[in-house]
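step=encode ok
step=design start
structure_in=
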């Protein structure tokens, strides 16, 4: 990082994106102009022009972190992205593939020859290859496995065997292990012999002769303790560790709770098999957050913004179809009260108010429930108390805001019964919204389904339909 540059990393990344887009756009324009000029040997001129730009682009790429290159690639059109991708060295390509979004990764992989793909990924660490494995062709994976030594091949196969979203699938093997019966002086000498510690190393893992985890030795303790002391004297025995089959989301909460940088991972016999680091945890958290946002919007998968139109269309069809069906159903509820609306036109302008308030209230409730389910805060012992609390909140909000809206309607239309109906409809629909906002995610979680998927769509439908039914039904009973 250039400390002499006072700009934030976000500003530098934005400037780099703009520079690459400008350079690639200029290359496209210049090639088009050359192609249109009446001259001989267009191919030679175009080749020289492209080579000149490639040198400039390559020099600029060398100064960027793979994560920044990934962001730049995601902001480019398919043609620009392909040109920039072809300029990268295989080792850099592998690192960038780890950083780009799943959708863009699939686009890049689909356009790469299998041999080039194997060259780009065989330079990666075992855990990094495991991250890419689901997206790589089987032939490429076989080639990568053949290129690895026995130890790395075994480790890769072990990681691939763990189910997705478990600690075993996220762990890496970059830990430094020491014995508990050696001196700190021997440990220091061992570290100097290694020369370089793996990234995210804040502690050494202490094991016995059978590789059973005994504790940890923080680097701070190693630096501040007398070198003559034994590891067993200064190590921490009560440590946070994870089993390979622990759920990844539970591990992320532990990292946040205990401010961990790294933690040991053990098997059923407490043998040390790997470590879990904060960078893998953060990546998992970001992926989970992105997936939840997509699911709430009714998108099946993440999209490459610059991919083909047909892929994006298919990704959005499923829940659009459901939206259409639910919208037609809600419209039929209105159709049942056509005569009522014709006799009192004001109802037509007030219906959306009831439905919108109910939808917003339900979304607030469901968002809190989904988040609490994800954090493990909702249990069978407290769910009843939570439901009662949300119903009371819905009742109080309905009473307060229903009264306010009812008063506003009375002042606008000078019609006390209409204001009273509006207040009553608001109260009842906010209660419905509270019930629906709680019920949908809890029921889906009980059935083993993702509580976030489709909750917003179904909630909007139910609060709209019930809001129309309650408001127009009360109007039919008390106003006509």
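sequence_out=
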């Amino acid at each position: 990082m250039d400390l002499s540059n006072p700009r934030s990393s976000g500003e530098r990344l934005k400037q780099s994106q703009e520079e690459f887009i400008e350079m690639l756009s200029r290359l496209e324009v210049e090639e088009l102009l050359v192609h249109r000029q009446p001259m001989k040997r267009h191919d030679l001129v175009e080749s020289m022009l492209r080579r000149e730009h490639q040198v400039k682009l390559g020099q600029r790429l060398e100064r960027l972190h793979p994560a920044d290159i990934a962001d730049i690639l995601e902001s480019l059109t398919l043609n620009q992205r392909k040109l920039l991708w072809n300029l990268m060295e295989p080792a850099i390509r592998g690192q960038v593939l780890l950083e780009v979004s799943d959708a863009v990764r699939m686009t890049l992989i689909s356009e790469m020859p299998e041999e080039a793909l194997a060259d780009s990924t065989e330079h990666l660490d075992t855990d990094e290859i495991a991250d890419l494995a689901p997206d790589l062709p089987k032939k490429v994976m076989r080639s990568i496995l053949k290129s690895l030594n026995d130890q790395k091949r075994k480790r890769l196969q072990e990681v691939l065997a763990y189910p997705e979203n478990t600690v075993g699938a996220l762990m890496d093997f970059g830990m430094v292990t020491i014995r508990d019966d050696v001196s700190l002086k021997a440990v220091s000498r061992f570290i100097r012999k290694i020369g370089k510690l793996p990234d995210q190393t804040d502690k050494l893992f202490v094991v016995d002769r059978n590789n059973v985890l005994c504790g940890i030795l923080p680097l701070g303790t190693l630096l501040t303790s007398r070198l003559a002391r034994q590891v067993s004297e200064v190590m921490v025995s009560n440590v946070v560790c994870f089993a390979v089959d622990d759920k990844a989301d539970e591990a992320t909460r532990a990292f946040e709770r205990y401010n961990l940088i790294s933690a040991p991972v053990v098997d059923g016999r407490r043998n040390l098999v790997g470590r879990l680091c904060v960078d893998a945890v953060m990546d998992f958290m970001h992926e989970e957050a992105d997936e939840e946002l997509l699911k709430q919007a009714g998108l099946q998968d993440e999209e490459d913004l610059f991919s083909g139109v047909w892929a994006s269309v298919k990704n959005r069809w499923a829940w659009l179809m459901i939206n259409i069906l639910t919208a037609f159903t809600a419209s039929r509820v209105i159709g049942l009260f056509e005569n009522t609306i014709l006799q009192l036109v004001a109802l037509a302008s007030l219906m959306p108010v009831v439905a919108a308030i109910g939808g917003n209230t339900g979304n607030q409730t469901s968002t809190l429930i989904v988040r609490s389910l994800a954090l493990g805060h909702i249990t069978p012992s407290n769910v009843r108390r939570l439901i009662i609390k949300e119903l009371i909140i819905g009742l109080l909000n309905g009473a307060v805001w229903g009264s306010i809206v009812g008063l506003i309607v009375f002042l606008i239309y000078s019609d006390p019964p209409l204001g009273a109906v509006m207040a009553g409809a608001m109260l009842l629909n906010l209660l419905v919204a509270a019930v629906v906002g709680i019920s949908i995610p809890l029921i889906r979680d009980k059935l083993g389904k993702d509580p976030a998927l489709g909750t917003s769509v179904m909630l909007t439908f139910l609060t709209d339909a019930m809001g129309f039914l309650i408001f127009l039904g009360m109007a039919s009973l008390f106003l006509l």
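step=design ok
step=annotate ok -> Residues 57 and 428 are 63 Å apart (CA to CA).
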